[in-house]
Each structure stands twice: as C-alpha cells, then as structure tokens.
From TrEMBL:
It is an enzyme of class 2 (transferase). Its EC number is 2.5.1.-. The keyword Transferase applies. Keywords: Transferase. The gene is fosB. This is Metallothiol transferase FosB. It comes from the Bacteria. The keyword Transferase applies.
Length: 127
C-alpha cells in the first residue's frame, strides 16, 4: 500500500508577478526559494510545508470552471470574508450568489472567488 501526503499545487499564470502579489495580499503567503530551477516560477509557502507554485505561461489559454478549484480552510472565515471585502474581491457561494457564503449539508461554511487568471479558490471553515 502506498502512503501519500499533499505537497504542492502548481498553476500556469499569465503574469507571475501579478499572481504572486494577489496570493500574498489575499492569503499572506510567504515566498520561498524555487529550489527546482532558475526559471521565473515563484513559490509560496501555504502552511505546514505545503506550497503554491506559480509558473509563468504568458500565452497560455486558461480555462476553468468552479468545479475545478482548490480549497483552503480557516477557523476565521468571517474575518477572512471581511478581508476580501476590504480588498474589493468579489466572492460568491457555490451557486454564484454574489457576496454570499454557503453552508453545506454537513454544516461547513464556504465562499468562492477567482484569482487574476480565473482559477477558482474555495475558502471554508472545515478546520
């Protein structure tokens, strides 16, 4: 039997510096060294050794939908929603109701929003 743990997520982005600034501003992720190459790919530390890699692909056509997303959890979801509002970042619930959070059947609250390239991000209180 194999055992796995989550290591990182990598996103193709049109403007690596714009995306980098977005993730730092919204999540306050810290930049870490790109130890894999001398490329312009920038790495961010999510938490507990997990990473976000932003790979510059200026000519890439990025298509996604809300069902393709990554999720982060926080015990301070209400404060995070206030933070999104202060940053003028539009968010919605699963069914696209603007400025609404959603309570799943299992009681978990969540919001969805997009990064500069259109990738969907869910933030929930499932901690």
């Amino acid at each position: 039997m194999f055992a796995f743990s989550f290591n990182h997520i990598a996103l193709s982005v049109k403007n690596v510096n714009e995306s980098f600034q977005f993730y730092q501003k919204v999540f306050q992720f810290k930049e870490i060294e790109n130890t894999a190459s001398n490329s312009k790919t920038r790495w961010l530390s999510i938490h507990e050794g997990k990473q976000l890699h932003l790979i510059p692909r200026p000519t890439a056509e990025i298509k996604t939908n809300k069902a393709v997303h990554f999720a982060l959890a926080t015990s301070t979801l209400a404060a995070f929603i206030i933070h999104l509002k202060k940053l003028n970042i539009d968010y919605s619930d699963w069914i696209n109701s603007p400025d609404k959070d959603y309570i799943r059947k299992d009681g978990i609250r969540q919001v969805y929003f997009q990064d500069p390239d259109g990738y969907w991000i869910e933030v929930n209180d499932n901690v």
